[in-house]
Write a structure and sequence with these properties.
Number of strands: 4
CATH architecture: 3-Layer(aba) Sandwich
CATH superfamily: Glutaredoxin
Oligomer: single chain
Number of helices: 10
Largest sheet: 4 strands, mixed
Distance between the termini: 14 Å
Order of helices and strands: EHHEHHHHHHHEEH
Shape: globular
CATH class: Alpha Beta
Number of domains: 1
Structural class: alpha+beta
CATH topology: Glutaredoxin
Amino acid sequence: MTQIDYYFTVLSPWAYLAGSRLEDIAERHGASVTYKPLDIGQLFGRTGGTLPKDRHPSRMEYRMQELKRWSKALNMPMNHTPAHWPTNGAPASYAIIAAQSAGGGDLGALVHGIMRACWAEEKDMAQDDVIKTCLSEAGFDPGLADSGLLAGAEAYGRNLEDAVSAGVFGSPFYVCDDGEKFWGQDRLALLDAHLGAEKG
């Protein structure tokens, strides 16, 4: 079975725009996905990236055009300037890590629910009640938001180290166990084709 390591920050609009396509691709090809949320600020600092607040205005203008194009093309509701962004992505990331460890729910739905809260529902994903609601709606024990804090924080740090070692430098980023890497939601079709070629 092909293994895909999915590196992302819950704060990424591009990860939000990926929707459920990764999960659909993985199911179609019998692949498994390991979700690895991480601190994008630290990743950028170690791999040459620049946070949006530090980018040149021309880059930010183009970024906004692309967000509008892609959300329209994908027919995904999106507030391109959400009220609660940027925010602290760590608590939601810890909850995702705890849920992945606990099992029993739909992890893809949890990840998308958390990002949708920010990018489409004007909610602050850093808030405990938002995280617990997302956990519950995805079939997980909402108490994981509390009980998974320590283990989540440790894994969150490991995910960053794993990302740097794997050559990851952005979000969303998909790394297959054969070493093939795909950066961006706009590369999901290429990931799909790659997994299809592997099976062929």
